Amino acid sequence: MYQNTNFVNLPLHLLFLMSVNKPNVNFIFLLLSQIILFPAQPNIKLAVIGQVSSNPNFALFAPHENENLANDYVIQQIIERSGVFVILRQDGKRLIRLDIKPFEVEIDPNRIFTEQGRRNNIIKHNPNLRTNTYVFHRAMRLSTALA
User: Fold this and answer.
1) Which positions of the chain have pLDDT values less than 50?
2) Using omega within 30 degrees of 0 as the cis cutoff, is the peptide bond preceding 102 cis?
3) pLDDT tens digits for 38-71?
4) Radius of gyration of the chain (CA)
5) Angle between helix 115-125 and 134-146 (nearest 10)
6) Residues contacting 97, CB < 8 A, separation 6+
7) Which residues are 59's β-sheet partners?
8) What is the pTM of this model?
9) Cβ–Cβ under 8 Å, residues 104 and 130
């Protein structure tokens, strides 16, 4: 369901710009990370930080890209103690936007792991969207694939 890429393919000036704010954390982040694209909508990505080892200390998932303080702390712990940290990314926002042309459907990634959660989530964040439409059913399928 996801397409794997990594930072090796980025131009050097982009790598430099990405590491300017916090050189130590971001530089190591680049060395230990890869990006997995969601093929149905390539602007949704999973950033995988760390390395799988025979004795990892922990594996964590951050459904919200914008929780910077917590995410930075976890990245630092991954670097120091080993393990894997996965961040769901899309434009730095809390909610994920599913592009179902000509509409956008917003979802909270915390609520995509059960069918009832996905349904309630789509209804809550898109109050004008009727449940008997193609857009609603497509949003259900995309959020299922994303989970």
Assistant:
1) 1-29
2) yes
3) 999 989 998 888 866 666 677 888 888 877 778 7
4) 17
5) 130
6) 90, 91, 104, 105, 106
7) 84
8) 0.71
9) no
Q: How far is CA 11 from its chain centroid?
A: 22
Own/partner contacts of 139-146, CB < 8 Å, gap of 24 or more, are 139/98, 139/100, 139/105, 139/107, 140/115, 142/40, 142/41, 142/98, 142/100, 143/98, 143/107, 143/112, 143/118, 144/112, 144/115, 144/118, 145/1, 145/38, 145/40, 146/38, 146/44, 146/96, 146/109, 146/112
For the chain, what's the residue count?
147
Look up residue 95 and give its amino acid.
L
* 43 and 91 Cβ atoms separated by less than 8 Å: yes
